[in-house]
Amino acid sequence: MTTAVTATDAAPLTLTDVRKTYLARGREPFEAVKGMSMDIRPGELIALLGPSGCGKTTTLRMIAGLETVTSGAIAIGDRQVQDLPPGKRDIGVGFESYALYPPLNVRENLAYGLKARRVRGAARQVDQLAARLEMSDLLDQRPASLSSGQKQRVALARALIRNPRVLLLDEPLSHLDAAQRQRVRRELKVLQREFGYTTIVVTHDQLEALSLADRMAVMNAGVIEQFGTPDEIYDDPANMFVADFVGEPKINLFEGTAVRRSGGTVVRAGRDGRLAAYAPAATDGQAVTVGLRPQDARPAHDDEPALAARVVVYEDFMEFGLATLEVPGVDGRIVAQLPHGVRWRRGETRRIAARPDRVYLFDTETGTRIR
Amino acid sequence: MAREMMPGRRRFTAGSVGADLLILLWFVFSLFPIVWMVLLALKTRSQQTSTYFAFSPTLENFGTVMSRRGEDLTSVNFSGALLSSVLNCGGAVLVSLLIGIPAAYAAGRWKYRGSEDLMFQMLSFRFAPELMVVVPLFVIYNQTGLFDTTYGMIWVLQLVTMPLVVWILRSYFQDLSPELEQAALLDGYTRRRAFVMVALPLVRPGIAAAALLAFIFAWNNYVFPLILTDSEATTVTVAVTKFLGGGGQAYYNLTAAAALIGALPPLVLALTIQRYLVRGLSFGAVKA
Ligand SMILES: Nc1ncnc2c1ncn2[C@@H]1O[C@H](COP(=O)(O)OP(=O)(O)OP(=O)(O)O)[C@@H](O)[C@H]1O
Ligand SMILES: [Mg+2]
């Protein structure tokens, strides 16, 4: 056992086709996780992002050993852990509810995790970690007297104190207010880099995921829709779900028809709208769903294919403006984010376009990307 | 209407005075039988049927009840019955805690086939009239030698104490975040140690409340000791009535004194752990 505060051996974490079926009485068996596979490198910070109920917590709990694995394998380093009890997996978990023991003060709470293993020098280790996390002044307080931000830090410290090989955090920032959230998010990233733990953070906040993670897994209904770097997820979404789920303001999705031409692909949308798209795999005349991020829409030049649209609302946010547009023949409205200084007025008709590689085409039936 | 409530100062309005008067009236009304009993316990035998409030009080009755003299009068060993009650009820509560705490933990933590039915089944012991089961029990007890024994009473009082303990404590365990124990599991504690070291200390107020309630219910039980005991293991509830005597030998003053003594142990217990009791009776809520 080392007494150093930094991780000595961050481990790779591998999930292979992990599944979880909940069997509840009087209900159909429910498959909450449907074959997850992930290769996580040592020291990597992974975000699990997805809507409520998609199986993020279930996945985390299976890795920690708090939930049985219905099938599949989980390995930490070269050790298969899926059948080991939680205490033998060498995993630190930051619980959403903090899981701090009310009758004990912070110092005792931190030492608690070391007591079970009869670690020598526990007191010094607690002091060191507390100093490192800048919470030495909290050590003698009871959990009840801490703010939620402080509880969050103590919960994190409690997960770190045993120097685990893998760190799992379930919605670590969900109880914090917006300002605290930003601060703790940055702290978390700095600490993770410094300690070097292989880490999974569960979140349903895309901003958190995009800003924290080395790579992120976007989950939906028990499957990983896409696993990649934040840039890949944002710039190159694998399907309609990912494109729709990640991005603020939300991506515009509307029906269109692909038209193949010698110069590339153009999609027709609405009565006479056209957009150039980069999608060699599209077939001529194919019905598609077009995805266009508000950030990618821009005022069109005179000589390029464009969508002509009537301005319904223009909102000025100082750094940028948001125009809500109506394109004749297109269901729903289209939002375009315009640079500072471009002011469109309600009722005007304007033309918008985008770089062809930023116009995404999706199979309307399956939602998969056509590229 | 924004009416300011100043701490330490009250507004006297017609409404609030009227409400206070009503409460006072209710208080007098509900305490009256107890006052009557106390007065009766302080009277001599010749005064026991008089309704005068003016009399010369005596503590003699308490001595008579507790001593052999009371036994000579009514052939009931009241001090022995008091001890039996303590043993029966204490034993019954102890057994219920020993078995009921793990049971409540399991019932609060895990759902399994039939778990709800099982819990309801247990609660239904409290609904069923005791008289329904006591006659067959009488036959069984007579044949197995459990009749008029402390073991027998502890055994049958489980019908009273066990459902209380399990139901109260289950709600306590349910209120406890399972993540506390899970954190301990991750630290390398075994399930059992996580239960003993993490969950158990946090439900101490619940255990105190459940134990006390169970004790009081067991103490007040009348039907089981009436039918299933005779002299060895008989309890205060049965013994008190013996002072009413048979054949015109009613000692109302002794009955009152005995009843007062009999009411004392649960009262003292309740007062000593009152702090826990208030929280305990609100069924849970042990948040940090
Ligand atoms: N013990 C259980 N028994 C039955 N179904 C469960 C159980 N735990 C979770 N589920 C179901 O499994 C699905 C996934 O749950 P999970 O808690 O993993 O979601 P999540 O992605 O963490 O959601 P959230 O963002 O709301 O925390 C949900 O539909 C949930 O209802
Ligand atoms: Mg969750």
UniProtKB/TrEMBL annotation, chain A:
Annotated ranges, domain ABC transporter: 13-246
A cellular component annotation (GO) from this entry: ATP-binding cassette (ABC) transporter complex, substrate-binding subunit-containing
Keywords tagged on the record: ATP-binding, Nucleotide-binding, Transport
Coiled coil, from the record: none
InterPro entries assigned to the protein according to its UniProt record, in alphabetical order: AAA+_ATPase (IPR003593), ABC_transporter-like_ATP-bd (IPR003439), ABC_transporter-like_CS (IPR017871), ABC_transpr_MalK/UgpC-like (IPR047641), Mo/tungstate-bd_C_term_dom (IPR008995), NA-bd_OB-fold (IPR012340), P-loop_NTPase (IPR027417)
UniProt entry tagged with the keyword Nucleotide-binding: yes
SUPFAM superfamilies the record matches: MOP-like (SSF50331), P-loop containing nucleoside triphosphate hydrolases (SSF52540)
SMART domains in the cross-refs: AAA
Domain of life: Bacteria
GO MF annotation terms: ABC-type transporter activity; ATP binding; ATP hydrolysis activity
Protein name (database record): ABC transporter
Organism: Mangrovihabitans endophyticus
Phylogenetic lineage: Bacteria, Bacillati, Actinomycetota, Actinomycetes, Micromonosporales
UniProtKB/TrEMBL annotation, chain B:
Keywords (A to Z) from UniProt: Cell membrane, Membrane, Transmembrane, Transmembrane helix, Transport
Species of the source: Mangrovihabitans endophyticus
Official protein name in the record: ABC transporter permease
Gene3D superfamilies per UniProt: MetI-like
Gene Ontology cellular component list: plasma membrane
Domain of life the protein comes from: Bacteria
SUPFAM superfamilies in the cross-refs: MetI-like
A Gene Ontology biological process term: transmembrane transport
